[in-house]
Every structure is written in C-alpha cells, then in structure tokens.
Amino acid sequence: MFDTVPVAMLPDSAPLATETLVVERDVVIGIRLETAVTSATARVEDRLVARVTRDVRVGDFTAIPAGATLEGTVTLVEPGGKFRDRARIGVRFTSVVIDGVARLPIETETIFRDGKPPAGEATSKIGASAVVGTILGAVIGGKKGAAIGGTAGAAGGTAAVMAGGRNDAVIAEGTALTVRLSEPLSVTITTEP
Question: How many Å apart are CA 91 and CA 37, to the nearest integer?
C-alpha cells in the first residue's frame, strides 16, 4: 500500500518566472533555407521552411534561439521572358517555431531574387548567328548571298533563343539569407525564479 499525502499538505512549488522580450522592428535574423524555391516550379502560397542560424538576443536573454524554424510562403512568381524580362521570385516568413512547440506569428520583409537577364544572352545568340550566316552567304553567293545569309542567320538565332529555356530565379536549399522583421515580435520566455 502506498502512502499518499493530501494535496493541501504538499509544499508549494515555486512558480516559474517569465519575461516578455520584444524583438524590435528592423531586427535582422540570419537563416538557412531548407526548401528550394525556383520560378520554374513554384506557385504563390507554396510553403517553405528555414532554420535560424544564430541566436536573436534582447539584452541578456535569447528571444529566438539558433535552430528555431521559420515558416513562410512564396509571395511572387514571375517566370520572365526569353528576350527581355527577368524571372523573379519573392518569399516571406509568417511564423517562427521555437523549441518545436511555441508557434508565434511574425512579419518579415519579402526577399526577392531575380534570374539573369536574358537580353544580353539573346542578343549575342542572334548576333552570332547573323555573323555566321553573313560569312557563309558571302562565301557562297557574294554580296547578295551575304545579305540573305545574314538574315537567315539572325532568324536561326532567334529560333534558337525561342527554343531555349528561361533564366529562372532560384533560391537553392541551404542558401544562407537574412530576413528583416517588418513588425516587432513579443516572445515570452521562462527565467530562473
């Protein structure tokens, strides 16, 4: 038989002391992306995850420890064009998960990444094809052949650009980034009594 002690006679346990920390607006948080994002496949509202890479401190206390998870979404996907427009992607984080339990809403500025500009690449492909066509046309048919060859070469270069892919905007898995808070964040932590 076990001895039981009435609850009223148990010694009071010391209450946990808490401290509310405010991580100010514009604080920068270092993160590492755990979800690859590319303008070729991403859709607006796709979910993404990152890990905090260094403690975010307020005074003597850690408000957001390294290893905490940031969760967010894709906010912008622009596939870009083959001749002029760059591809562009935007991501923003909306919550932080601390110690795998406490989920707090956060607001961060959007991170944008652009693909390489296609204009220079397209121009060089078309120009190179025109030059090659002009040389071949001149060899085969003189001045008239050069004009025809140049036009045909440029058309072939344009077709090559059209058949090629876009320069996608990409944020690879494992990319180190920083995000800036656009609103303050309140975090309640337990401290020693």
Answer: 9
Q: Are strands 170-171 and 88-98 parallel, antiparallel or unpaired?
A: unpaired
Q: Is 176 exposed, middle or buried (0-12, 13-18, 19+ CB in 10 A)?
A: exposed
Q: pTM surpassing 0.85?
A: no
Closest CA to 93 of 179, 185, 188: 179
Closest CA to 67 of 104, 96, 95: 96
pLDDT of residue 15 exceeding 90:
no
Count other C-beta atoms under 10 Å from residue 4's C-beta.
6
From CA 57, how far away is CA 30, in angstroms rounded? 12
Q: Mind listing the pLDDT tens digit for each residue in 60-90?
A: 999 999 999 999 999 999 988 655 578 999 9
